[in-house]
Structure formats: structure tokens, C-alpha cells
Amino acid sequence: MKKTLFCLALMLSGVAHADELADANALFAKKSYPQALQLYTKLANTGNAEAQLHMGEMYFYGEAGTVDLAKAEAWFKKAAAKGNKTAAASLEMMKKRDTRRAELDYWIGKYDGAELSAGQFRCPAPRIPAMSKQNDEIESVSAKVAAWQDCYNAFVRNLNESSPLTKRIPKDIADLLTKDETEQSRVHLEGVYAGIAENAKVSAKLVLADFGAWRSATDAYIKEHNRIVTDAAATAPRKGD
């Protein structure tokens, strides 16, 4: 009789744990993280592998209130020891983070977007004189500015298509980032994008200002030159006079 009662007690205990796990999962789904963490902690401490897995995930992604990779790893190890395959995969993921630390740091704070202003998208400012008097020089300056404008427009289109720069993070690297690292990366890349855009805008304004000054000075010279030529032709003595 005692044996029967003991088995029954174990069965009831299992049902209670299943209900609590379901409650914890429901709380997590509703983003009630503190309450979910409380239940997961209770279950994890009794040896529930799924709860241990979720504890590891919450500490890894910061849903436990802060990112704590040491605690995350400890919980993943406990769950993996009980045969939880997801926990084992999570431990492998954490090992990859160690081996690819340099790549993670690159996207978190070292990427500078240099390739966005290189190659076909490198648009050096054309040299524009203060004024041009000869037709061949006028045509040359106009052609150089037109080529620069085509390059700049291509650069702008490519920059716009590259936004947001978080798209440039390789998926296998993005999958290794923690929640905090993902946010740090986003902020850094937005700053890089803004810096590139602002530098290009300033450079373009300078080119257009120099071109505008050159065109005004050149147009004024041509106008004055044509007036002199016209006046000279009007006052020149005619044959037979």
C-alpha cells in the first residue's frame, strides 16, 4: 500500500511540475520575464532540464534582467548533462563566440564602412579653376563635373540600398550576438552610416559651390569677351570707307 501511495505521489508531483512549466512558458511568451524567471528558477533547481535550458537562454539574451554569460553557460551545462539537445547546441554556440570573438567585435564597434566609399563609389572632387577662358578647358571642366556627379549619384544609390548597415552583418555572426551586443552593433552602424552620409554631403556641397563660382566667373568672362568683340566689330571701318 505504501508503495502504491509513493508512486501516486510521484505522479502528482510530475503533473504539478508540468503545470508550472506551462505557466512559466506562458509568462515568458507574454514577456513577463521576472515572473517567468521565478518559476523557471524553482523548476531548474529541482533538476528540470527544460527549465534549466530556459534559464540559460534568459541569462544569455538578457531577459533575466541582465546578460550573464557565465550563468547562461552554467545552466546550459546542467541541461545538456540531462540530455537536452538544445542546451548542448547552445554550448557549441558559446564556443563559437570565443573562436570568432574578433569578428563579433568588428561588427560591434570596429566596422568603418570603407568599402562604401571605395572602388567605383570613390568620387574624388574634380579640380575646378577659378575661371576658364578657352573652349577646350570649359568643355573639360564640364565633363569632369558631370563624371563626378554620375559617380556621386551611384554612391548615394548604393549607400541608400545598404541601409540599414546591420544587413551587412553575416547571418552566422548575427546569430552569435547577444541582445546587448546586437544593440551596440546597431548603434555603432547607424553612426557609421550617418558619418559617411554627412561627409559625402559636405564634399558635394564644396564641389557644387566651386562649380557654381567657376560657372559664374566663366559666364561673366564670356559675356564680357563677346561684348568687346561685338563692339569692336561695330566700330571697325568698313572696306571702301
TrEMBL record:
Key word NADP present: no
Signal peptide: 1-18
UniProt entry tagged with the keyword Signal: yes
Pfam family, one: Sel1
InterPro entries found in the cross-reference section: Sel1-like (IPR006597), Sel1_AlgK (IPR050767), TPR-like_helical_dom_sf (IPR011990)
Keywords assigned by UniProt, alphabetized: Signal
Protein name: Sel1 repeat family protein
Organism for this UniProt entry: Massilia mucilaginosa
